[in-house]
Design brief:
The protein has helices spanning 5-13, 46-56, 59-68, 119-122, 138-152, 187-195, 210-221, 235-244, 251-261, 290-297, 304-309, 319-328, 334-340; strands at 16-22, 28-31, 34-37, 70-77, 81-90, 93-101, 126-131, 156-161, 174-179, 201-204, 225-230, 262-272, 279-287. It is α/β, with parallel strands linked by helices. It has 2 domains: 5-101, Beta-Lactamase, CATH 3.30.450; 115-317, Rossmann fold (3-Layer(aba) Sandwich), CATH 3.40.50.300. The strands form 2 sheets. Strands 9-8-10-11-7-12-13 form a 7-stranded mixed β-sheet, with helices on both faces. A 6-stranded antiparallel β-sheet has the order 3-2-1-6-5-4, with helices on one face. Helix 7 packs across helix 9 (251-261). The radius of gyration is 21 Å and the shape is globular. The termini are far apart. 41% of the residues are buried. The model has no long low-confidence stretch (mean pLDDT 94).
């Protein structure tokens, strides 16, 4: 038993999502989206902090942490749960954040995903993106989509992650999971190799740089179904972010390539429920249509919201419309919807003085 395990047990017992440790401060954890002090825990002094972090960190990862002041890895807690871990050095000393990864992969219905999201798992090929800020549930959604394919189809799936979060067992599919830094040197190298390995579905943990974006689009154009994430807040911003990654003289060709390869975008948020019972997800969904493809080619992405609104019948929806419905149904407060909305104006009435 590691010295840090009682903190993990308390996090799990209290239904927390994240554990925060900062040198010289009382441990804190996130409950229903709020970061609060962990009861009955004292501040962690420097020597104890180093001992807690060093004990569970793989040797090679600790060397990286000492050399760079930053490291990511996954930790399995006594077969109870897995954690995505980040260590970092800062002006107050050492810090660590542990994100709880549920031991069982929830399906799309269980995570509250709209029915339209299942279409992402049905495409034979193309690029499907799940976007949103940190902590918005992107990994959970992607895990549910991969599990949907694994349960219902017979395909070869490759995931490339840093670190591996949800662990998939083989069902109807064969699932190969590679961790950047341990199994392969980079996302780009894993993608290049995946193209030659008869892979049919690829999950890219995050499109972090031009090379990864370019290879993901190429794989999608070559007939693979590619899932990836970006830290963007809407379908429009997602398209713009991908194009802006490339040099200006390449962007015209990139728009054409993206218009051909893109299949769908889901941009999501997690909001605190008005009754205090956990959180609820809100999703913006855009599917590729001839109109969407043309607007991408013509660099008129500012018109994409109108296309989404006019195609509600096929499952498209704007995030702010979902938030408005949540407020009307009493599921979230107007203040919470205002905080998470893309266009604040429609929610300003709920926040006096905003």
């Amino acid at each position: 038993m590691a010295k840090i395990d009682p903190l993990f047990d308390q996090l799990i017992q209290d239904n927390g999502s994240d554990l925060h440790l900062h040198e010289g401060r009382q441990p804190r954890y996130r409950i229903n989206g709020s970061l609060i002090p962990m009861p009955n825990q004292a501040a962690v002094p420097e020597m104890q902090m180093v001992a807690l972090l060093h004990e569970i960190c793989p040797k090679e990862k600790w060397s990286i942490f000492e050399a760079t002041g930053d490291v990511d890895f996954a930790y399995a807690h006594r077969n109870k749960a897995r954690f995505r871990v980040n260590y970092n050095m800062n002006n107050h000393g050492n810090s660590a954040v542990f994100r709880l990864i549920p031991p069982i992969i929830s399906n799309l219905h269980e995570i509250g995903a709209p029915d339209a999201l299942r279409q992402f798992a049905v495409y034979p090929s193309g690029l499907c993106l799940v976007t949103g800020p940190t902590g918005s549930g992107k990994s959970t959604t992607l895990a549910a989509l991969i599990d949907d394919i694994n349960t219902s189809q017979s395909r070869l799936i490759l995931t490339v992650e840093d670190p591996i979060e949800f662990v998939h067992t083989n069902k109807k599919c064969t699932v190969i999971q590679r961790e950047v830094g341990d199994d392969v040197d980079s996302f780009g190298l894993a993608l290049r190799n995946g193209v030659r390995q008869d892979v049919q579905v690829i999950l890219v943990g995050e499109m972090r740089d031009l090379e990864t974006v370019e290879l993901a689009m190429t794989a999608a154009e070559m007939g693979m179904l590619v899932f990836a994430t970006l830290h963007t807040n809407s379908a429009v911003r997602t398209v713009d972010r991908i194009i802006d990654v490339f040099p200006a003289d390449q962007q015209s060709n990139v728009r054409e390539s993206l218009a051909n390869s893109l299949r769908a975008i889901c941009s999501q948020r997690l909001l605190k429920r008005a009754d205090g019972r956990g959180r609820i997800a809100a999703h913006e969904i855009m599917f590729q249509t001839p109109a969407v493809a043309n607007l991408i080619r013509e660099n008129k992405t500012n018109q994409l919201p109108q296309v989404i609104m006019s195609n509600r019948a096929m499952g498209m929806q704007l995030l702010d419309d979902v938030l408005q419905n949540y407020v009307k149904q009493g599921l979230v407060t107007g203040q919470e919807a205002y905080r998470k909305a893309n266009e604040k104006e429609g929610f300003r009435q709920f926040v006096p003085g905003a």
